[in-house]
Every structure is written in C-alpha cells, then in structure tokens.
C-alpha cells in the first residue's frame, strides 16, 4: 500500500510534464525511420540478408516500445542533479532506500512512454498489417514479459551505477555518453544482433546491453525457441544479480565521497 | 539526557589545486595536485535533550559541515558522533524517523505540485499514521498560518510561504532533533520574526533538541541560550550569550539626548564618540566607569534622556573573529 501510494504520487508529478514525455517518446520513433529506409534498400539490393523486410519492420516497431519502456535514463538525475548539485541530501534524510525511491520516480515515466509505444504499435500493426509479421502466443507473451521486467531492472540498476560514478568524477558525462554509444550498438538499436558476424554475435550476446533491450524484442518477435528463451532469462538473471551486487558496493563506497555540495 | 555527543570530530575534503592559465590546465592534466581542506578540525561537544543551540561563524567556518556530519550526510574523516544514541552515518531508518534537516537554500517540496502532495509523500515515507498526520498538519498549519496555500503549486508560492511549507514537511513526523541550516535566509524581517517564534514554540512544546546555523545574529540572540562559535573548523567559543557579552564587552554604549546643543569637544573626555549630532551622542565608555560617566553627564549637561546598553552581539562576535582570542 505504501509503495502504491508513493508510486501514484510520483505519477501525479509526471502529469505536469506529459508533453515533454511525449516529445521524448518521439525521439526513438524518428531515429528508427532511417533504419527502416536503410533496410528497405538493403533487402532490395542484397538477397543474402536472412531477415525479411516484414521481420525488420516488426523488429524496429517493437524496438521503439522496448526503448521507450525499458531503457532507464536515471543516470542523469543521479549523477548531475543528485550527486553534483547536492540534491541527494533530501533523499538521504528520509527513511527510505535511495535506490527504491529513484525506482518509483522512474516507473511512471516508463509506464507513460510504454503507453505511447503500445498505442503506436496497435495503430501501425492494424493499419499497416501487411508490412509487419507479429504472431503473439501465450508462451511468447509470458516469456516476453518476464524478460522485459528483467531488462528494465538490469537497465535501471546499471544506469544507477553509471550515475554513481559522479561520486568520484567531477564530470561523469564521458562515462554516461560512452554507455549510451555502447547501448546503441550492442543492444541492437542499429541492426539486429542476429545480423552480426557469427563469433562477434556470440560475444555481444553475452554483454549486458543485449539483456537490456534486444532479448525481449527477439522473444516478442517469435525468433527465440523455448531453449533460447531459457538461455536469455538465465543470462538476464546473471546480469541482474551482478549489477545489484555492484550497485550496493559502489553506493557504499561512493556515499563516503559525497560532499553535499550546492547545499 | 544527552541528545548529541561529538568527540574529536574531523572532516577533511580533498581539494584539487590548479595553477591559473592554460599552462596550469595542461600541467594538471598529467599531474594533479591535491590538498586536504580542514572543514572541521577536531571538535568535541555535547548537547542536552531540549536544548536550542546556535552555531555561528563566517562563511566556510565549518558550521554546515558539522551539521551535515550530525545528520548523517557526511562521513567523518575521524572522530565519534552520536545523535540520540545512533551513529548518524549509518542512517538507520529508526534514526532518520527521529531527526530532520531543513536547509534554507534548498527545498524538498515538489516544485510542480501543491505542498500538500509533498506532505502526503512524507507521510508515507515516514509511515505516519492517518490520525497523527491529520493532527500534526492541523497544528503546524495553524501555527505557521499557511492554510490558504496548501493546494497551490509550490512554484507559485512566495519565499516565505515556501519556507513555512518546508518546515511543515520537515516536521510532519515530529522529529526529536531538528537541524536548521540558515532557516531565515532571504526572508524579510516580519517573516524572520514569525519563523523564530515558531522555532521557539516547537522547541518548548515538543522538548525538541534544535541546532541552528545562521548568519543573522537576530536568530541566535532571540532563540539560543547557548552558542558555539566556529572558525576555521574549530570551536572557539561554547557557552551562553550573556557570558560572551560579559567577557568581551569591555565598553558600554551611552546614548544621550540633550535638550540644548552640546559641543563635541566637551564630550570627548568621556570615551570614544561613535555618533554625534548637536542634540544626540553615542559614546563607548569603559564598562567599569559607565555609571560614573552617566551621572557626570546628567549633572553637567542639559540631558533629556540617557540610555546605557551593552554593545550589539554582532559587534562582539566580529571582534572575536578578528582577534580569534577566546
């Protein structure tokens, strides 16, 4: 009950910024358009591409929802505002875990962005049905949802750690931007990881970035067999535990460095 | 019973030093120089339950750093701190439910929502029962007279109204120890007065231990019977305000209003003239001879009114900072 009330109060706060939230949603939508254009040309000129254009369209459509719903951007709040400007002070004075209060601050954004994404998905997959290939079964939805929850938790915890680097660095933007670039490449935001060369694909698949966005997309696309889905969930559980331990460690070390500047 | 106990508290900050200019920037790229800035330097003190204490000192003296160590925000470099029997930096929930920190320059209220929403959030976070929440809100809102602004967006409130709402948010869980860092900063004199009255009332009513830092001597004079003067991270005075006046006020101030103009030269024999016009003079007179001087002036000049007073506390504190002898 306590958590629900805290969540609802943060949701109220979000409605004050609903327009900004909508604009943020449009960014991945716009970013995906050149990719679809690129693949349209690529599939026409190269017959060796193993994915059909319908699969690729569906991939980018689901990817938009995954990016908007599962990718946390909490590192900016944590690093720039809370740690560098000293806003962390007000969180530290409350008998509530900083990790969880940030979690409740983040969730409403993801829910609202997800709402935009699902609306877009329903509109596109209904009006332009012939251009997409999405067959959702109960099993796919079940594993897809589990994988999505893990993906969000991994992304959120990882981004919290990225934010914590501000405890030691006056300017941690370089770290945040590096992570951003790596995520674009290795979470499948440019091309599906399946289309990477064999050995490279194996390695990239084990990195945490794939667990944050790519895997749930692949499951919802129906491109993962039962055994692959189990492997995906296992990899995600590994990364989640790893990041949760790392998050506790960096928090405990970092908080001793906190100078509460700006306060 | 002791609320706060501090033994040999030290807090150093590691500060990066860079030579000026492009050459300095390039040099610091490869070889960075650091030094330890002593924000708090080996201080010890104890505070009893229900005491209202003022920390005074110039900017960068270490007042706020001390407050941050006491509230658990900063990890001390060395020394022991105990607040209500807890080690503050552990920030145990039980400890955080018993304290509160208000910083005059920062707010915890949600900027885009009415203050009531922030109060409700704190209610959930501090797990205040519905009954206590209602009782506390009613009491605090009445005391601070902010009933009309509870449902107005915080960004639309005046600084004074916001500060009052900040206090409500900080007190909703009835803390036993209250840390106030510059609570009256930026407020007009009327609002300063109101807030002081409220702090005094809260201290009395709940027997709460209150520690405040302020640049305004008025805050300290009106609220605190005990003050700690901090400079360069060290406590250079810990005691009552009266004691400071006794110890440092070597002079008394005589303000005399004459019914007829009196020449300045005739008054110079009594002490140092601080202010003069033909009908009014303010003279600093040695403390031990102030009564004699007053009676001589009364006899020798056409006096309409005479007043003997201690110098302003602000003047004394300024003198202490300058001489650093306590």
TrEMBL record, chain A:
Supply the alphabetized keyword list: Membrane, Transmembrane, Transmembrane helix
**Keyword check for Membrane:** yes
The lineage's top-level taxon is Bacteria
What the entry lists under InterPro entries is as follows:
ABC-2_transporter-like (IPR010390)
What is the designated name of this protein?
Answer: ABC transporter permease
Tell me where the transmembrane regions lie.
22-43, 55-74, 107-128, 140-167, 179-196, 203-222, 228-246
Q: Pfam families recorded for this chain?
A: ABC2_membrane_6 (PF06182)
UniProtKB/TrEMBL annotation, chain B:
Entry-linked PROSITE patterns = ABC_TRANSPORTER_2
Q: Where is the ABC transporter domain?
A: 4-257
The record ties this protein, via InterPro entries, to: AAA+_ATPase (IPR003593), ABC_transporter-like_ATP-bd (IPR003439), ABC_transporter_ATP-binding (IPR050763), P-loop_NTPase (IPR027417)
Domain of life according to the entry: Bacteria
Q: Name one Pfam family in it.
A: ABC_tran
A single GO molecular function term of this UniProt record = ATP binding
Which keywords does this Swiss-Prot/TrEMBL entry list?
A: ATP-binding, Nucleotide-binding, Transport
Its recorded name reads ABC transporter
């Amino acid at each position: 009950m306590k958590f629900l009330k805290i969540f609802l109060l943060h949701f109220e706060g979000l409605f004050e910024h609903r327009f900004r939230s909508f604009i943020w949603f449009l960014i991945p939508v716009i970013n995906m358009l050149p990719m679809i254009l690129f693949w349209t040309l690529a599939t026409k000129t190269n017959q060796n591409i193993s994915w059909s254009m319908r699969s690729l369209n569906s991939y980018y459509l689901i990817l938009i929802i995954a990016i908007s719903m599962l990718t946390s951007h909490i590192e900016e709040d944590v690093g720039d505002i809370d740690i560098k400007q000293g806003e962390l002070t007000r969180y530290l004075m409350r008998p509530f875990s900083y990790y969880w209060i940030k979690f409740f601050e983040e969730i409403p954004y993801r829910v609202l962005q997800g709402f935009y994404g699902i609306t877009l998905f329903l509109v596109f997959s209904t009006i332009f049905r012939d251009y997409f290939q999405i067959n959702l079964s109960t099993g796919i939805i079940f594993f897809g949802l589990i994988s999505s929850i893990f993906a969000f938790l991994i992304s959120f915890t990882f981004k919290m750690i990225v934010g914590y680097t501000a405890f030691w660095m006056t300017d941690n933007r370089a770290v945040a931007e590096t992570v951003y670039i790596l995520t674009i490449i290795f979470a499948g935001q440019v091309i599906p990881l399946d289309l990477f060369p064999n050995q490279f694909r194996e390695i990239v698949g084990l990195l945490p970035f794939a667990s944050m966005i790519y895997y749930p997309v692949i499951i919802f696309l129906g491109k993962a067999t039962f055994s692959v889905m189990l492997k995906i969930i296992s990899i995600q559980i590994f990364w989640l535990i790893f990041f949760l331990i790392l998050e506790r460690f960096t928090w405990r070390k970092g908080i001793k460095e906190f100078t509460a500047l700006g306060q | 019973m002791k609320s706060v106990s501090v033994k040999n508290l030290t807090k150093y900050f590691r500060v990066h030093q860079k030579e000026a200019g492009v050459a300095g920037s390039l040099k610091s790229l490869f070889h960075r120089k650091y030094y330890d800035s002593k924000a708090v330097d080996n201080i010890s003190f104890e505070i009893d339950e229900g005491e209202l204490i003022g920390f005074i000192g110039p900017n960068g003296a270490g007042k706020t750093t001390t407050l941050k160590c006491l509230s658990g925000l900063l990890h001390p470099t060395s020394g022991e701190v105990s607040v209500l029997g807890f080690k503050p930096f552990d920030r145990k929930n039980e400890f955080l439910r018993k304290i509160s920190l208000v910083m005059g320059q920062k707010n915890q209220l949600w900027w885009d929502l009415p203050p009531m929403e922030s109060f409700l959030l704190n209610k959930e976070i501090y797990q205040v029962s519905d009954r206590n929440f209602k009782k506390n809100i009613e009491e605090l809102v009445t005391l601070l007279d902010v009933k009309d602004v509870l449902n107005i967006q915080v960004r639309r409130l005046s600084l004074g109204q916001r500060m009052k709402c900040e206090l409500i948010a900080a007190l909703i869980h009835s803390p036993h120890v209250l840390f106030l860092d510059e609570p009256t900063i930026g407020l007009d004199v009327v609002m300063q007065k109101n807030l002081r009255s409220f702090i005094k009332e809260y201290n009395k009513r709940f027997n709460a231990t209150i520690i405040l830092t302020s640049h305004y001597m008025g805050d300290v004079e009106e609220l605190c019977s005990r003050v700690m003067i901090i400079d360069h991270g060290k406590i250079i005075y810990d005691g009552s305000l009266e004691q400071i006046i006794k110890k440092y006020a070597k002079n008394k101030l005589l303000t005399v209003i004459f019914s007829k103009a009196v020449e300045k030269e005739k008054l110079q024999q009594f002490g140092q003239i601080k202010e003069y016009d033909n009908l009014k003079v303010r003279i600093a007179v040695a403390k031990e001879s102030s009564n004699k001087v007053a009676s001589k002036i009364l006899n020798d000049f056409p006096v309409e009114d005479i007043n003997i007073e201690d110098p302003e506390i602000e003047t004394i504190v300024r003198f202490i900072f300058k001489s650093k002898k306590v």
